[in-house]
Amino acid sequence: MSPRVRATNAAVLSDPLACAVDLGLPLDDPSVEELPVPLRRLLSQSWQRRAKSELEVGFAFEALSARAQQLGVDPAVCTLLRRASAQERTHSLICRAMAERYGARRIDDPDLSGFALPEFGEPEPRLEFTLHLTGLCCVNETLASAWIHACVAASRTRLGLAANRAHLREEIEHARIGWAHLASCMRDEQLLAGLRRRLPELLRVNVRQWLDPALYVDGPGLSEHGVLGSVESRRTILAAVDELVLPGFAHLGIDVPPLDWQH
Ligand SMILES: [Fe+2]
Ligand SMILES: [Fe+2]
After folding, report:
1. Span from the CA of 187 to the centroid of ligand 1 (angstroms)
2. d(CA 113, CA 105)
3. Nearest-5° Cα angle at 201, 195 to 204
4. CB neighbour list of residue 97: distance below 8 Å, 6 or more residues apart
5. Which domains are present in the chain?
6. Which phi and psi angles does 27 have, rounded to 5°?
7. Would the pTM count as exceeding 0.90?
8. Ligand whose nearest atom lies closest to the CA of 92
9. Measured in angstroms, how far is the CA atom of residue 249 from the centroid of ligand 1?
10. Residue 212's closest CA among 31, 73, 49?
11. Quick one: pLDDT at residue 1?
């Protein structure tokens, strides 16, 4: 990689506006001004929240790529995890650019001081790593892919469509990292037993987070700007659990008992 390319990437990775311009996001879309200010504020809040969670996921991928290397996981998986970390940082910048555009104000760097990778407390490091990857990729990135896909489908503005599309393809790739890793573990009966033991609780915790209405904003016309409201988000997530996540585990021979997402 030439020094010039590195410098360009460094600028893109540190500046939301530069990142948005680099990706060709139509920030001049006049549909933003057509929205009443209170609704623009709601969209700004939503994108700001997403900017933080994308960055957290980026740190999680970075931490997992280091653990993967220590565990001697397939180097291809380590490379994909590192690439996912960089992509999530870019996603965070896209979200910040959107928050700034809708909010017509500067948005600070997300505060990740309270963020820490959760620990499952498993003594076997390979199981601990697999639980992380299962939660992050097979569950969260699969649900993120479904949710963003629904946001793309609902988008009626150039900006909403472009911003969501800039995320979607990479989130699908991130989900595949987890499914590919699990497929490579199918002969490890001890690891599979641990995964089966922990999976119901892991699923329950992660899905419940996605069903939290506080994650979403509601208001007339917001979905047309590519931000799904709480009712439609809940419907999308529950459908993705039934149609993508649970069949994914079943395909690998890991059946999950019926779960109640409310408790
Ligand atoms: Fe992302
Ligand atoms: Fe992702």
Report:
1. 31
2. 23
3. 125
4. 16, 17, 19, 20, 25, 27
5. 33-104+125-251 (1.20.1260)
6. -65, -15
7. yes
8. 1
9. 22
10. 49
11. 32
Q: Which pair of tokens denotes residue 175?
A: 């989900």
Distance CA 233, CA 4 (A): 42
How many Å lie between the centroid of ligand 2 and the Cα of residue 148?
11
Q: Which ligand is nearest to the CA of 50?
A: 1
How remote is the CA of residue 196 from the centroid of ligand 1, in Å? 27
Tokens of 209: 């987070």
Which pair of structure tokens corresponds to residue 78?
A: 């380590």
**DSSP track, 125-162:** HHHHHHHHHIIIIIIIIHHHHHHHHHHHHH--SHHHHH
Smallest-distance ligand from the CA of 174: 2
CA dist., res. 118 & res. 205, Å (int): 12
- If you measure from the C-alpha of residue 218 to the centroid of ligand 1, how many angstroms do you get, rounded to a whole number? 22
pLDDT tens by residue, 227-255: 999 999 999 999 999 999 999 999 999 98
